[in-house]
């Protein structure tokens, strides 16, 4: 696309008059707040930040950006680890004020505006004992999460967030408003389910809902690091036999939380095992029991709790403005070798806040056909997440190097494809996208060519339009 050029004062004035939301420019008193995203590593200086109040503002902002050849960043929850929700120069089209959620309890659907957080959605749907699969930290934005797939505590039973989409409303690069579903603009609907926001700005999502909660049985157990090999091998066995109602997550790290552990082990490595049973709590407690017997627990917080509470359990672990670099790989198995490598890399992390995580997949995720959506990772049994989390800017290089080296080392256990919501900084984007999307890459490029031929939306997990 064209190089970004600053629009004239007259043009900005004209846009401001058309706009219902606020337009923030460099020099405005809230400019620094407006250019900030969740990851403290990201420090960008946009030419303007346009807070949209609704779809009309989004259309105006898209038209303005296209007509002036501006670089475009789209921000929903601002939690993309690579910071693609902001850009230097150009325009940030911010959706955070479009955060309404409307539930139809009879139809078991929810209409969700694109700026909603996961917590906004759970709050509304749980009023009716319903939920849709979302991620595990409640202030993450639903838009980025869903467009990239969306793995959370309900994934084995009900699939990915994007698998639960009935339709979307979207503004494409030409400024046109469209709806997309299985029956309308099917190619677009296929592409936005796992292919990211490469074809346009989704303004609203329609989700299917399921009966969940309000109370659910949960597992939350810590084992000491010196039992790591046995615990992870026992976990692998358990995972193979549990029903899809139980979704688990493994995290290997230090978790240096003084209020949770005896002083002598606070700084020691640990294994955290999590599980949520998406059906009756009484039944679930029995199914979760084996997760509590994988070794000698250091601490065990398992029990029945409110679904919304479990959904917020880790919110405090990821404060705004800390420093983060997360990447990922789909694993072909959780072999003994893989387990050994995970334990070694977790022990080598320069920051005690970092973790190496294993997200079991399968279940409802694998029930969806590979060609039914753009989401690429359905065949894999496990997703490896490498989370570098640290506070000191002087430690940036060491932490990023650790996560990259860990990923390089683990690549031998994978086909090399990554989960684009845990993308590093999208370094080597083109190669990463081709490896990750494989056979679906050309189809995604065709969607891009149809709806965004000049690559107006190029800052996220982006594919290139096909050249004529
Ligand atoms: C603390 C934390 C916890 C997380 N937990 C999980 C988890 O449990 N499961 C999981 O799957 N992922 C998880 N993620 C990853 C998360 O899915 C991605 O970071 C996702 O991009 C966040 O979406 P967002 O709307 O907050 O981000 P943003 O940074 O606002 O947007 C992300 C990307 O999507 C594009 N985009 C945003 N909105 C739109 C739109 N409406 N239309 C088109 N494009 C758009 C943007 O251009 C941007 O490139 C987590 C991330 C964080 C930071």
Q: Gist?
A:
By secondary structure, the chain is of the alpha+beta class.
Q: Number of DSSP helices? A: 15
List the bound ligands: flavin-adenine dinucleotide
What do the pLDDT scores average to?
Answer: 94
Helix and strand composition category:
alpha+beta
Query: Strand portion, in percent?
Result: 15-25%
The assembly state of the depicted protein chains is single chain
Low-confidence stretches: none
| Radius of gyration, taken over Cα atoms and rounded to an integer in Å | 22 Å
First-to-last CA distance: 15 Å
| Helix content, binned percent | 25-40%
Largest sheet, strands/sense/barrel: 8 strands, antiparallel
Shape: globular
Number of strands: 19
Write the SSE topology.
Blueprint: H1 9-18, E1 23-24, H2 31-34, E2 46-51, H3 55-67, E3 72-75, E4 89-94, E5 101-104, E6 109-113, H4 118-126, E7 130-131, H5 142-148, H6 155-158, E8 165-172, E9 177-181, H7 186-192, E10 200-208, E11 210-211, E12 215-224, H8 228-241, E13 246-253, E14 270-277, H9 281-288, E15 299-300, E16 303-306, H10 307-311, E17 323-331, H11 336-347, E18 355-360, H12 364-367, E19 382-390, H13 396-410, H14 429-437, H15 440-451
Parallel strand pairs: 2-4, 3-4
Antiparallel strand pairs: 1-2, 5-6, 6-10, 7-11, 8-9, 8-10, 12-14, 12-15, 12-16, 13-14, 13-18, 17-19, 18-19
Helix pairs in contact: 8-11, 11-13
The structure holds flavin-adenine dinucleotide.
Please provide a written account of the structure:
With 468 residues, the protein is of the alpha+beta class. The protein has 15 helices and 19 strands. The chain has helices at residues 9-18, 31-34, 55-67, 118-126, 142-148, 155-158, 186-192, 228-241, 281-288, 307-311, 336-347, 364-367, 396-410, 429-437, 440-451; strands at 23-24, 46-51, 72-75, 89-94, 101-104, 109-113, 130-131, 165-172, 177-181, 200-208, 210-211, 215-224, 246-253, 270-277, 299-300, 303-306, 323-331, 355-360, 382-390. The strands form 4 sheets. Strands 12, 13, 14, 15, 16, 17, 18 and 19 form an 8-stranded antiparallel sheet that branches. A 5-stranded antiparallel sheet has the order 5-6-10-8-9. A hairpin with a 4-residue loop joins strand 8 and strand 9 (177-181). Helix 8 (228-241) crosses helix 11 and helix 11 (336-347) packs antiparallel against helix 13 (396-410). The chain is globular, with a radius of gyration of 22 Å. The model has no long low-confidence stretch (mean pLDDT 94). Flavin-adenine dinucleotide binds at residues 38, 74-81, 84-85, 95, 114, 135-137, 140-141, 143-145, 147-152, 197, 201-202, 318, 421, 459-460.
